[in-house]
Amino acid sequence: MPTLEKIKDASKVLSEIIRPTSLIYSPKIAPDCHLYLKPENLQVTGSFKVRGAYYKISRLSEEEKAKGVIACSAGNHAQGVALAATKRGIKSLICLPDGAPISKVEATKGYGADICLVKGVYDNAYQKALELKMQHGYTFIHPFDDDDVIAGQGTIGLEILEELPDADAVIVPIGGGGLIAGVASAVKAINPKCKVYGVQAAGAPSMFNSIHSHAIETLPKVSTIADGIAVKTPGQHTFEICEECVDEIVTVTDDEISTAILALIEEQKLIAEGAGAVSVAAAMFGKVPVKGKKVVCVVSGGNIDVTILSRVINRGLLNTGRSADITIELTDKPGQLSEVSRIIAEKGGNVVSIYHDRGDLDVEITGCYLRIVLETKDFTHIREIKDALLMAGFKLV
């Protein structure tokens, strides 16, 4: 567990490279509590990861620097290591899973690193990095299970309590556990009464399972839109720190993550990746007991691929009743579409797309299906439109 003195030392070193990320008060996202955001998505490289990577590389010996560094990552640690190594004139090689977003791969190249794409997920990239380290003698920069990396991430906890010393709780995303291990170490050293809650994606609950079974567990597979925290096995050091310092760990679904990403865009004009939004999702959906409390959510990163962002926004709209997909079985005769359009318009719905199908075998020869996608206000609005269609004699499928 890094000492407060070491975390403060990391803060001094990082002052030469990191961008200040002041807390943002966000009263609308989770109105049951007094919510603040720690926007590490606005950090250099778009993620908190540069903190741990830079502090670790700053402490390497001349011999270690001369060998060059190697790292494995789903994308954010890769960019942090690449930037830190380039700033210090050190050669870097990064192993990334082949499913990493293109934007993260290209950004890592842009910071000066060589890339090795590995088939599989983060854990496969980790094994490949260890192989290459043994073959070529590189210095390995672990993404989370390293004392210096953890201390670097702990500077976030330091900054939170410097700005909001009476915070009641801090909610932190968890992948391998480096971020929460650092934040919890700092927070508990300064204010032991402040709660620290961890959040994982329901499709990658490695630390959640390990803490509940009191032993490190390896997941057979992971599946989540939060690629930055899709880790099969948590770290040994991070697991131990979580057992000692973290008050509770919870999980959120991909639908809840999508809703949180949409809320951050609409309410705060912030772009968060899936891993960065899990903390906000936990607050929004009442996964942790923060009603009436001063709460800080660490938005850990914003490096989301734009194609994924489009799908996430659409899912978020569906989950909040902002979009509706309605299918109506009609008698195929003139005026039907006009009547349906009139009812929707009167109820304030906005038609986005229409699909008219006469050829489905499940419908009568004289019938057809009309599928309509609408922009709506909420689930109550959707219900009003459906009720109006039913009252007019239309059959909803």
Layout of helices and strands:
Blueprint: H1 4-14, E1 24-25, E2 34-39, H2 49-58, H3 62-67, E3 69-72, H4 76-87, E4 92-97, H5 102-110, E5 114-118, H6 122-136, E6 139-140, H7 147-163, E7 169-173, H8 178-190, E8 195-201, H9 206-213, H10 236-245, E9 248-252, H11 254-268, H12 274-284, E10 294-299, H13 306-319, E11 323-331, H14 336-346, E12 350-357, E13 367-375, H15 379-391, E14 395-396
Parallel strand pairs: 2-10, 3-4, 3-6, 4-5, 7-8, 7-10, 8-9
Antiparallel strand pairs: 1-2, 11-13, 11-14, 12-13
Would you kindly provide a written description of the structure presented here, covering whatever features stand out?
With 397 residues, this protein is α/β, with parallel strands linked by helices. It is built from 15 helices and 14 strands. It has a 6-stranded mixed β-sheet with strand order 1-2-10-7-8-9, with helices on both faces. The protein has a 4-stranded parallel β-sheet with strand order 5-4-3-6, sandwiched between helices. It has a 4-stranded antiparallel β-sheet with strand order 12-13-11-14. Strand 1 (24-25) and strand 2 form a beta hairpin. Helix 2 packs parallel to helix 4 and helix 11 packs across helix 13. It is elongated. The protein starts with a helix and ends with a strand. The mean pLDDT is 93.
